[in-house]
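Section 3.1 - Work completed
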Amino acid sequence: MEKQAEKTNLRALTPYAKGVSFDVAFQLVKERGVRIISNREADRILVETDVWKSVREAFPIWTGTMTAYAEPGKTLGSTVEYTDSESKLTWVLDVPSGFRKLTNSILVAEYPHYEFERKGDRIIVHPESGKLTVVENFPTVNGVYAYDENTRIPINQKMECDSGNKHRHLWRLDKRVGPVARGNVNIGCDYGRRDVGLYGRPSDRLGVVGEVQEAQEVAQKLAKLQLAEGMAADATPELKRLAETTKPEAIEKLSELIRALTGQTQ
């Protein structure tokens, strides 16, 4: 399949080598005012384009797609709970009444349309009103499947691995509340890029990819420049005092640092 070429505003906010748990990733994107990409967006850039190569250092990544599913064959019930075996924290999502009798279904909320709060050893996920959706016919076992077009989450329609762009590889647990993870790009083919990770612990350390708007990126660079200029101005009196007590070569090195920070040239 020919890959699409396109301009992108995606940035590797956290490389996988310095990966973070999902709660840290969530706080990171909120503080920076960027949008963590969804499973659907991650799926598209991993399978249909070569955009992922520009942020390769971030993969595997957390996506902003929060999910909850119950045991195979059981109804979703009033709540879905999942305990992270590493952190020992239990992630909880209260199920709206209209979804409680559904079986073999997965609930989906997309960033930024949910929050979560910690109460003791429980983390409660709070989707915005009307922003929680459901994907029915969710597979009960791991395997190769077709996918729901809106979310790119696998659905229970078996596929072959040579079915072009139509198949995805599902990895699930018995039950779980947590975000979708994507992008094992180091396998050497596109197999890992088709993996849909619905089995990882939220405490696992993964990378983060966010979408940064051009105007926002310019504003961030301007803010850094203004900060550097302010630091340079504040340092002027100190340089005068240093001139009286410091060797000339040391002063020159400090001056070079200030010029580099402010973008000045000699």
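Second construct:
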Amino acid sequence: MRRVLSLVPPLLWTAACATGGNKMPPSELYLTERMATVLLQQGNAVDAEAAFRKAIPQDLDNAEMRDGHGLSLLMLGRAKEALAEFDRALEISSRGAYLNNRGAARMALGDVSGAEEDFLKAYDSNLSADKESALINLGRARVRRGLYAEGQDALTRAIALDPESFDALMARGECRELLQDERGAVSDYLAALRLKKDNLSAMFHVGVALISLKQEDLGRRYLQRISELAPDASEAARARVLLGQEKNLEIPH
């Protein structure tokens, strides 16, 4: 995971943006870089990308800014541009986080073997967080190639590093479903749901898996809970289809 800087007051950001000139004063550059990171953390990819794009010409050798810009581009679906930024970040510093992110861009572009190569390199990092992310990413890559048992193994190793990894538990649950291990999948989804009790995706997966195990009443209660929590969410719409309350919506596997 990327190190995220602390939040900056919005009014200061507005004032900084109003400053003219081609060369930013150091204080404005620092503020712009911090706000770009905060916007990325908040999931505001559009404004984050613009902020990173503004800062990078002033700080060309800042690998963190290159990586952040790549992440914002990847969130916007611009994987080819993101890959170029991750390449630049890695030319400056060979951090495991940058390798993980470049692998994600390669995955988005369909280069699964190149992605796996990056994830395996990232696993050699000295940082536990980089190793965990590498194993989660590798597990997903193996699943994408149809290697479900290998994917489950990588995800189990990730969980061994961090038993409270929501992403690893959800990914292994999905992998176990593909292996037709519905009970194992339910166990993983419930563990994930205990970490994020109102997570709609986890709740939906628990409900569907329980129904497939013939525990229909309990599964339906989980699906109904989604509509109670967030009736306008996409998960709620899919839950209503399964509950027979709506029709003509495709339920993704």
